Amino acid sequence: MSPGNSIAVPESALWFGVFGLLPFGGSALSAALLGEQYGGWALAALMTYGAVILSFLGGIHWGVAIASDPGNGALPRRLAVSVAPSLVAWAGLLLPLRVGLLVLAAGFVAILYVDIRATRAGEMPSWYPRLRRPLSIAVIAALLLSNIAGPVGVGR
Predict the structure, then answer these.
(1) Measured at the alpha carbon of residue 120, what is the angle toward residues 134 and 11, in degrees to the nearest 5?
(2) What is the pTM of this model?
C-alpha cells in the first residue's frame, strides 16, 4: 500500500470507528457513576472490551502483512508485531483491574505508534493515522479516567 493511495478517511471506517467507541464511553461513564456495587462490573466490561479491540488492531496488521508480503523477509517481523497486542491484552486481563487498565492503555499507545510507523513505511493507507489518532486518544482517555474515577474499592 503506498502512502498516497487515499487522502480522506473512508466514511464507513469513520462511522464504525466512532460506534466502536460507544462501549468505551458507556463503560467508563458507568464505572464512574454506578458506585462500588456495579462500578466494578463496568470496569471489567471496559477492560474486556479494550482487550478485544486491542487484539483486533493487531489483527489488522496480521491481515495487511499476509496480504501484502513482498517476499523480502519482513513477514516474520510484521507477524510478530501483529500478535503483540493480543499478548498485551491477555496480560492485562490477568492483572487486577486497575493495573490491567493501565496495561491496556499502554498497549493502545504502542499500537498507535506501530500504526503511524507502518503508514510512513507505506504498509498502511495514508488515511489510517487520521482515523486511529482520535479514536486512540478517546480509548486511552476512557481507560485512564476510569482508573482514576472508577469506584474506589474496586480492583486495588
Answers:
(1) 40
(2) 0.89
Residue with cell 467508563: 28
- C-alpha grid cell for residue 52? 478485544
In this structure, what DSSP letter does residue 22 have? Answer: H
b/e per residue, 96-119, with b = 16+ CB within 10 A?
A: ebbebbebbbebbebbbebbeebb
Residue ranges of domains in the chain: 47-149
> What digits encode the pLDDT tens for the residues 55-98?
999 999 999 988 887 777 778 888 999 999 999 999 999 999 88
In this prediction, residue 7 carries a pLDDT of 82
Length of the chain equals: 156
Taken in order 119, 124, 127, 130, is the CA torsion positive or negative?
A: negative
